[in-house]
Amino acid sequence: MASDRFARFLPLAGVLVGFIFIVGLALTWGDPSSEAAPAEHYSYWRDNRGQHQISGLLLAPLIAFLLVFFGAGLQRSLRRTGGDSGHGAVAFGGSVLAAGAFALVGMLEGAATNAAHEGEPQAVYTLSQLHTYDWLAWNAAFAAVLLATGLGALRNGVLPTALAWATVAIGASLLTPLGIFGFFLLPPWLIVVGILLARRTTVSSEPTRPAPEIST
Fold it and tell me: How many CB atoms lie within 10 A of CB 126?
């Protein structure tokens, strides 16, 4: 029974990640671009210290934690009869990489806000420049997750065919200049796929009733 509850939680972790992701984006919207002047970077991190501390020290580590569970759920769902699917292994590995990226983002946000609070503009500018390129790690990690999940779902039917193809398309977009659009589709994808896989896990874990005996 406890094992069944844990198995149902794995995909639901993705739902939680999706909602927390949306909250984090809303809190940190408007980060200065890499081309912004050093003074703009410094004033931004100084003036927005509170929300970035919430995002970096609370939300990002929580997302990183939950992504490991969601990756395990994807691997379990993509597992083929008689052994592990390579698609599941790649999806799990991508989820772990994404978790590491979120943990790094949290560290950068915490360090940048602290440097701004201590009045260190050069340190803030360096950390902020690193922060503006955090999408490189996110895109690579989630591209692996989505491509492996979509291709694996096309083989074993764990997701509806239309959603599986959409997953492949979003994952592929993350490796192109159109990755910004795929990035903003990630939260709803996590929510939808997490719910569908959780429902599938619930159905598959329900005990089957024995057929009634027919007396002769």
Answer: 16
Instruction: For residue 36, give the DSSP letter.
Output: S
- Among left, alpha and beta (phi > 0; psi -120 to 50; other), residue 106 is alpha
Position with higher pLDDT, 70 vs 29: 70
| CA–CA distance, 147 with 168 (Å, rounded to integer) | 5
**Helices first, then strands: H and E counts in the chain:** 9, 0
What residue ranges in the chain does DSSP mark as E strands? none
pLDDT single digits (tens) 70-116: 999 999 999 864 455 689 999 999 999 999 999 999 999 999 999 99
Count of residues making up the chain: 216
Question: Are 145 and 95 spatial neighbours (Cβ–Cβ below 8 Å)?
Answer: yes
Query: How does DSSP classify residue 56?
Result: I
Q: What are phi and psi of 83, to 5 degrees?
A: 165, 180
Q: Write down the pTM of the prediction.
A: 0.86
What distance separates the 2 farthest-apart alpha carbons in the chain? Answer: 89
Phi, psi of 159 (to 5 degrees): -125, 155
